[in-house]
Amino acid sequence: MSTILRVGPYRFFFYSGDRDEPIHVHIERDDKIAKFWLDPIRLESSGGFNRVDLSRIFKIIEENLDKILEVWNEYFGD
Q1: pTM above 0.70?
Q2: Maximum Cα interatomic distance, the chain, rounded to a whole number of Å
Q3: DSSP assignment of 8-30
Q4: CB of 36 within 8 A of CB of 25?
Q5: pLDDT at position 78
């Protein structure tokens, strides 16, 4: 698993086996984990996060989308 970004209590990452899925990012905080598709940005699974957290995560993804996509493409060679 490769960490892309850390913002506050959130860690954004992807797994090396994620190549065969559409571009997405996993987000972890404590024992919670969510997954967002990135094109367009939308929640795939919430894994225990509440609405406030999901809203914050969505905003962080919007603000850092270029960086997340760049790291994904570098890692998976697209």
Answers
A1: yes
A2: 34
A3: TTEEEEE-GGGGGS-SEEEEEET
A4: yes
A5: 57
CB 23 within 8 A of CB 72: yes
Q: Which domain holds residue 57?
A: 2-76
What share of the chain has pLDDT > 90, as a percent?
Answer: 85
Beta strands in the chain (DSSP E): 2-7, 10-14, 24-29, 32-38, 41-45
> Band of the pLDDT at 60, cuts 50, 70, 90?
very high
User: What is the Cα–Cα distance from 27 to 13, expressed in whole angstroms?
Assistant: 6
Domain count, the chain: 1
